[in-house]
Amino acid sequence: MNKRYVIGNWKMHGSLAMVDAFSRALAYAPSPDVVAAIAPPHPYLGACSDLPHGCGLAGQDCSAHDNGAHTGEVSASMLIEWGCGWVILGHSERRTDLAESDQLIAAKLATASSAGLIPVLCVGESLAVRDAGREETVVREQLRAVLSEQSPASLLVAYEPIWAIGTGVTASPEQANAMHAVIRDELTALTEDGASVPLLYGGSVNPDNARGLFDCPHVDGALVGGASLDATSFSKIVEAAQASLEK
What we know:
Blueprint: E1 4-9, H1 16-25, E2 34-39, E3 56-59, H2 76-81, E4 84-89, H3 92-97, H4 102-115, E5 118-123, H5 127-131, H6 135-147, E6 156-159, H7 173-190, E7 199-202, H8 210-214, E8 221-224, H9 231-246
Parallel strand pairs: 1-2, 1-8, 2-3, 3-4, 4-5, 5-6, 6-7, 7-8
């Protein structure tokens, strides 16, 4: 893989003042080989439309419907109008907090892809599943449930072990690389272009551990949570992605 991807998921954090401060402090040098983007809460997409250094935008979620009487939902076409190129789907917090099923995530992915967004499909296991030695089985099942009947034109997959999200505990580079190899194997069996789908790691990524993760042969980028809320921290992670390609 000749590119790196760094996507910051702000989750339910943000304000107009924060967007302004983030824009002013963003300080990495743009590179054609590193794709950087942030996913702010939907109300702040407009305020983030002119981020410097070519920083792109992603949606945190989208509806499975194109339009209609679906109060509180945001459609893929709306995200595109605000300049989004990607949309995060199947994040563990939505699977857990909002009981999103694999079937719903599959429908959202189909709608987003048809509209022209690039889905960032999240998969990952709980600590109980890993302790039981079933992490590979569960992640393969998540991929099959969403992708067995569709092959989107473009796709990113983010491996986010639930036990590492927001806990300060990061999967070791060896753990991340091993699971990414499993994901690559499953994607190759499921989709026509599975061998070339970029694979991102997510789970307490920060400037201190990013380079070690990016240096793994099966890790093509990161889905960054808390460390993306600070522009200096986010910029350092982007720089780590750039450095991993220059080694």
